[in-house]
Design goal:
acyl-CoA dehydrogenase activity, flavin adenine dinucleotide binding, 9 strands, about 15% strand, alpha+beta, Butyryl-CoA Dehydrogenase, subunit A, domain 3, globular, oxidoreductase, Butyryl-Coa Dehydrogenase, subunit A, domain 1, Butyryl-CoA Dehydrogenase, subunit A, domain 2, AcylCoA_DH/ox_N_sf, 3 domains, Acyl-CoA dehydrogenase, four-stranded antiparallel sheet
Length: about 375
């Protein structure tokens, strides 16, 4: 018996979730172990996602997307995670979820036609570069600088921990164009192959192995001024606008990992005999599985509630921070319990729960560390002076 959750989804959204599950069985499950070993996913996978109608869900049709709401995207992603996607696969396949929204919302038609449409058709791969060696969650203090020189910007600096930057075709880069702090940041699209722009190092990670992660160097990189996204010195606000959807996406990954770990652990406990009876015959094991189920259900309900409020146009920045924390804390705890219930097998690389255990550890860090987001939520909720 497999545990799933469909409440809160329409019939169409449940069908979308089931389609994502079937796609996973056909196009992902046979290959995922090899992609984890390779350290990246093949470029043609983007075309398969686009052909199946999964790449542009939640993106407006007028820019090449498939339309739909954030809740539609939630249903799709739940199907993928229920099917056993790794964190690295999700991050790589959907890096455009953080690379192109700023261009869609604020960029010129030329930028949309040059970068957004090819990404949504699976022909290009984009990434977003914010984090630097000296600035992670503290976005307002990035140091990479872009100086206007006629019809170009000249960029100097470095970025690190950038998802999909190794195989990516362009990087939407956060740069400093003005005064210190949030008011002096802009976003500029930097195409791969631009002189002076290099992937200086491919990074090895604890988890998210199927996701290529790079360190980037910008040395007198000249980029056309037309590659500026929106207005100069407005980049911080463009980034902040999309933090809610990014954090909901990470929350979805969290409860998705947890739900998969719950099902893997429950199946193992039904078939694994110890002391003459299945593990699930022990009260302590049943209680543990039930608590795992409870935490997954709570995390999912909270995440989808915030997603619905976001779709309705509400300002829910604080709630998105708290939903992410709830879901990723659930992922970390449930994955740990799943490994424990598997015993020695849970510590083996051949066990899927071992992979989830490593993958979920990034979630309380990525998209804003839990400590930073908790403090942000405190200020937004009026609990700080």
């Amino acid at each position: 018996m497999t545990t799933t959750f469909n409440h809160g989804f329409t019939e169409e959204q449940v069908a979308l979730k089931e389609s994502a599950l079937e796609f996973t069985r056909r196009e992902v499950t046979p290959h995922l172990d090899q992609w984890e070993k390779d350290g990246e996913i093949p470029r043609e996978f983007q075309k398969k996602l686009a052909h199946a109608g999964f790449l542009g869900i939640g993106v407006p049709e007028e820019v090449g997307g498939d339309g739909g709401s954030l809740i539609d995207a939630c249903a799709m992603q739940q199907g993928f995670m229920e099917g056993g996607w790794s964190g690295g696969l999700m991050a790589s396949a959907y890096t455009h979820g953080i690379a192109i929204p700023h261009i869609i919302q604020n960029g010129s038609k030329e930028l949309v036609d040059t970068y957004v449409r090819p990404v949504l058709s699976g022909d290009m791969i984009g990434s977003l570069a914010i984090t630097e060696p000296g600035a992670g969650s503290d976005v307002a203090n990035i140091a990479t600088r872009a100086v206007r020189d006629g019809d170009h910007y000249v960029i100097n600096g470095a970025k690190t921990f950038i998802t999909s930057s190794v195989r990516g075709d362009f990087v939407t880069t956060a740069v400093r164009t003005g005064e210190p702090g949030a008011h002096g940041i802009s976003l500029i699209v930097v195409p791969k192959g631009t002189p002076g722009f290099t992937v200086s190092r491919k990074l090895d990670k604890m988890g998210w192995l199927a996701s290529d992660t790079g360190e980037l160097t910008y040395e007198d990189v000249r980029v056309p001024a037309a590659n500026l996204v929106g207005q100069e010195n407005h980049g911080f606000y463009y980034i902040a606008e999309n933090f809610v959807s990014e954090r909901i996406w990470l929350a979805l990954m969290g409860y998705g990992h947890a739900l998969r770990c719950l099902n893997l652990a429950a199946d193992y406990c039904r078939v694994r005999d110890a002391f003459g009876k299945p593990l699930v015959a022990n009260q302590v094991v049943r209680a543990k599985l039930t608590e795992m189920h409870r935490q997954v259900a709570v995390a999912r309900s909270y995440t989808l509630e915030v997603a619905r409020r976001y779709d309705a146009g509400e300002n829910c920045i604080a709630e998105a921070c708290l939903a992410k924390q709830t879901a990723v804390d659930t992922a970390v705890w449930v994955a740990d319990q799943a490994v424990q219930l598997h015993g020695g097998m849970g510590y083996m690389r051949e066990s899927e729960v071992e992979r989830h255990y490593r993958d979920v550890r990034l979630l309380p860090i990525g998209g804003g560390a839990t400590e930073v987001l908790t403090d942000l939520a405190a200020r937004l909720l009026g609990y700080a002076k």
